[in-house]
Design goal:
binds flavin-adenine dinucleotide
Length: 103
């Protein structure tokens, strides 16, 4: 990470060592569950999750929505919604600013 921030996954190896990458990120499956069948009730989103998505707020927000819905669906015994990183998530909104028209 360009800011020098380091991922904090300290408690996780005790729960599911195989869900932590060598770089300290959290491995997730296509439903944002930890990539370990014994911890399928645990979800990871945002910068810490090894989703393949850009490390951006927009992506973290979308992952949060999907994870929240999947937690509800899991409790209800329904099929989970898949997550796939997309181009839009990595985009940045930029204002075009104000332009003088000479009046
Ligand atoms: C300089 C900069 C500019 C950026 N600009 C943009 C931008 O313009 N657009 C965009 O979409 N994204 C931008 N990003 C990326 C965006 O900030 C991140 O992708 C987003 O914040 C990730 O959200 P997150 O919830 O995964 O992590 P974070 O927002 O980092 O939240 C993690 C939270 O966990 C807390 N925490 C950490 N350890 C513990 C602990 N042990 N116990 C309890 N709490 C803990 C932290 O204090 C923090 O509040 C920028 C990032 C940086 C650094």
């Amino acid at each position: 990470m360009c800011t020098g921030a380091a991922p904090t996954t300290k408690p996780l190896p005790g729960l599911s060592a195989e869900s932590v990458t060598s770089g300290g990120m959290i491995k997730v499956n296509g439903h944002l569950q930890l990539d370990d069948p014994t911890t399928s009730h645990t979800f990871a989103i945002g910068d810490i999750a090894d989703t393949g998505a850009m490390k951006m707020g927009r992506a973290a927000g979308l992952q949060g929505l999907i994870a929240a819905r999947n937690i509800g669906r899991q409790i209800a015994g329904r099929s989970l919604i898949p997550y796939e990183p997309g181009v839009i998530e990595g985009s940045i909104d930029m204002s075009l600013g104000l332009v003088s028209i000479g009046k």
